[in-house]
Amino acid sequence: RMxxxxxxxxxxxxxxxxxxxxxxxxxxxxxxxTAAQISFGFNTSGFNHYKTIRIFPESFYSKMxxxxxxxxxSTSGVLFLSWKDFMEGFADDxxxxxxxxxxxxxxxxxxLKYGNDFDxxxxxxxxxxxxxxxxxxxxxxxxxSSFLRPYAATNIEEFFAVCVEHFxxxxxxxxxxxPDIFNHLCFLLNLNPLNKSNDFRLE
Length: 203
Fold this sequence. Notes:
Blueprint: H1 2-12, E1 14-17, H2 25-38, E2 52-56, E3 60-62, E4 67-69, E5 71-73, E6 78-82, H3 83-91, H4 99-114, H5 120-141, H6 156-169, H7 171-177, H8 179-189
Parallel strand pairs: 1-2, 2-6
Antiparallel strand pairs: 3-4, 5-6
Helix pairs in contact: 1-2, 2-4, 4-6, 5-8, 7-8
């Protein structure tokens, strides 16, 4: 299932190297694997709105935001990634930081508004998940300490993306510290990262 999802992603996206960066097979596989990881429980790929992935050697300047970025997911169907930061996200699988998963999480949410091939379970339940997570989001915005890193307080979109990073990189701690948010995120994504012995199924 994972391999099928990877191939589906690879053959449906165009990867473009920027600022002299040469696109390699490793980039195709690593980015596709990240997409397959977050969408593993979906019946669809979840990313058909995105056709182009632009990869920069490191953080890049955005005229639209007037600052340097490590990544981005546009409403026009383009993903932007700093390869340096993407790889650093996988260098430590327990540091709760993963640029690839973060941007794929944004892409899933944008897909609901601008795409036409989204997972129905995700679409039907994402608002309910937000309601469950709202008290923790409010705590973060009030400057209170949280298991989630402070960047999650930026807005509800960043809150979701940070939760996804923690979900895959610190699943056991997430479940212990914020069980409601974690368990309902399992339902939302239709997978449980702690159930390694049974293909990450919810059961």
